[in-house]
Design a protein that fits this description.
One of its GO terms (cellular component) is cytoplasm. InterPro entries: His_Pase_superF_clade-1, His_PPase_superfam, PGM_Phosphatase, RNaseH-like_sf, RNaseH_domain, RNaseH_sf. By secondary structure, the protein is an alpha/beta fold. The protein has two domains: 54 residues, no CATH class; 212 residues, Phosphoglycerate mutase-like (Rossmann fold). The protein has ten helices and six strands, in the order ααααβαβαβαααβαββ.
């Protein structure tokens, strides 16, 4: 230190007259073992580097530079642009015998057909979709999505392009079972599935695994049909994942999303950079009289 006064005072050889400074010195001495530290006077001209650092700290303020701000909101500006996004209208299939029972219905061998109510739901959503004047119709090639897509094809005049990338999640050994049956027969697996999106039923697919597929599916549609209106007839799990992906939410968000049979969920994807926006979720107004 280049202050003889402070050196002598902190060493205890000179008295500190100011009461507040005496208390501060006592706190400093109590903060460490006195035998581990000594104070020495060094002439200022021999300690110029330390003097320069002290002056910089006192005069220059904090040396910490704040991290540059990263823009988070691009959508507000994009909505004012003239670029036309690809519009994806995701339609969940109509009701099957498993739907009201809340049974697992994935890609297993059951492949149920629509009930009479499910066919009625498909007709209603087909009328709503026709008003949107879609240009492309894609569907998962399972029976329930085929039948729903067929109703839309008849109302729009579009041909159906089937693509397995839009399959429902695979539930493996749980397919066709109720939640109660899975909980009773596979209690540990059931709890693991409830706890984490990375957990997959035996022979099945986790939400994390399916999410990779769904993101690829969204990118595929945006690349193949830039600026067009595309209908995708798919499944509840896929729609939940699509909403989670588009909003940038953590995968656990799928535990808080549900799509009703023959509901419509709308997504925009801008071709120039892949910016995405969730425009609607679980629309069911077309069922109202």
């Amino acid at each position: 230190m280049d202050s003889k006064l402070v050196v002598e005072q902190m060493s205890g050889r000179w008295q500190i007259k100011h009461a507040d400074m005496r208390d501060l010195a006592k706190q400093c001495r109590a903060a460490h073992d006195p035998s581990l530290i000594t104070y020495s006077w060094i002439p200022r001209d021999e300690n110029s580097h330390a003097d320069r650092l002290a002056n910089k700290a006192l005069d220059g303020g904090s040396a910490h530079k704040p991290e540059p701000q990263i823009q988070q909101n691009y959508l507000s500006e994009r909505l004012r642009s003239e670029e036309v996004p690809t519009m994806i209208y995701m339609v969940r299939h109509g009701e099957t015998v498993l739907t009201p029972l809340r049974k697992f219905s994935g890609t297993g061998p059951l492949d149920p057909e629509l009930t009479e109510k499910g066919l009625s739901q498909a007709a209603a959503v087909a009328r709503a979709i026709a008003k949107l004047k879609p240009e492309v119709l894609i569907a998962s090639p399972l029976m329930r999505t085929k039948q729903t897509a067929q109703a839309i094809a008849e109302s729009t005049g579009l041909e159906i392009a089937f693509d397995e990338i839009w399959y429902e999640l695979s539930f493996g050994n749980w397919d066709g079972l109720s939640f109660e049956e899975v909980k009773e027969n596979f209690p540990d697996d059931y709890q693991g599935w409830l706890n984490s999106t990375s957990y997959a039923p035996a022979g099945g697919e986790s939400y994390d695994e399916a999410g990779v597929r769904v993101e690829e599916a969204l990118e595929k549609v945006a690349a193949l049909y830039p600026g067009q209106r595309v209908v995708v007839v798919t499944h509840n799990g896929v729609i939940k994942l699509a909403a989670q992906i588009v909003t940038g939410a953590p995968t656990e968000a799928v535990f808080h999303i549900d799509a009703a049979p023959c509901s419509i969920t709308s997504i925009s994807i801008w071709p120039s950079d892949g910016l995405r926006a969730l425009r609607s979720l679980n629309e069911t107004g077309h069922f109202r009289p």
